[in-house]
Amino acid sequence: MIRLGRAPTDRKGFTFDPRGGLVAIDSGGGEAWLRFHPASGWAPADGCDPEVRDLLDLYLPLCGCGPSGVQVVGHLGQSLNGCIATQSGDSCWVTGPENIRHLHRMRALSDAVLVGAETVVRDDPRLTTRLVPGGSPTRVVLDPHRRVRAEHNVCRDGEAPTLVIGTRSRVPPGRLGEAEIAGVPERDGRLDLAAVLGVLRERGLDRVFIEGGGVTVSAFLHAGLLDRLQVTVAPLLIGGGRPGVHLPPAATMGECLRPRCRVFRMGGDLLFDCEPRVPADAAEGEGLSRVI
Ligand SMILES: NC(=O)c1ccc[n+]([C@@H]2O[C@H](COP(=O)([O-])OP(=O)(O)OC[C@H]3O[C@@H](n4cnc5c(N)ncnc54)[C@H](OP(=O)(O)O)[C@@H]3O)[C@@H](O)[C@H]2O)c1
After folding, report:
1. pLDDT tens for residues 144-196?
2. Which atom of ligand 1 is nearest to the CA of 167?
3. CATH number at residue 232
4. pLDDT(210) > 50
5. How many domains does the chain divide into?
6. Residue 223 has pLDDT above 90, yes or no
7. What is the CB < 6 Å shell around ligand 1?
8. How would you classify the pairing of strands 289-291 and 259-266?
9. How far apart are CA 273 and CA 245, in angstroms?
10. Same domain assignment for residues 81 and 197
């Protein structure tokens, strides 16, 4: 996967090599897929292959750094009725293979992939990049009560660095298998999530992909720390399942968050790529659907 951080100065047209690396080509070359404009940044080139354009439309905004230098993206795959797993915690699989590939792309584009303790205890995921080219990000687990064990994959397999984050007052720094343990202060009895991002930033981990579950993504959303919220909806109904996004109650529709959103079709699923801090603008023609 490409990662675009630094603005090029001397060339304006780009294409990709077979491994997905970015290759500069002479300005004006007709075969460019990507262009850089000093005023507006990266954009698909005019003659870009339509399939490539669809991918660039989705991923280009996620390749550059946000204004703060940090880009935090949360993702949940949910049923039509808003569940991410059954009540017992089974979530294999809610969404289809196209969306699972998207998760691996997001991992490859991120410095860190972060999940809540319940996801590790229930699923024992590896959280590595395996379905697309690209490196595996640092794995981060929020685990205030030390529920994660040295036997869990992320602490055992050594396939990527792992950081287990607990409460500073209760969890002494140290190691858990191959993983490092770090502590952050509490806020309102929970981990201070801004402090979590601060710990990651200190380690150069600016692009953070929060891959679940619902409790963790919702906590970042409620704290106003998500640059993007991606919700993939699968045509599936889960009876009495675990909720995806849950927020404090709102009294009126006017108080509800209606963010700017782009829609992408992924196989049989729909991905809603939302910017929680930017209100929807009806004039922008929301509801575009692109096929990935
Ligand atoms: N469909 C999907 O997209 C998807 C993705 C991932 C997981 N899943 C499924 O979802 C289920 C797990 O999701 P979940 O929502 O139940 O739990 P979760 O978000 O994976 O983990 C929640 C736990 O993480 C810790 N945590 C998160 N935020 C915290 C904060 N601000 N402060 C302190 N601790 C915090 C807490 O641990 P303590 O409980 O120890 O306090 C909390 O209970 C599993 O069944 C998994 O299979 C689905």
Report:
1. 999 999 999 999 999 999 999 999 988 788 999 999 999 999 999 999 999 99
2. 33
3. 3.40.430.10
4. yes
5. 2
6. yes
7. 76-77, 84-85, 89, 91, 94, 115-119, 122-123, 142, 144-145, 147, 190-191, 193, 211-216, 219, 242
8. parallel
9. 14
10. yes
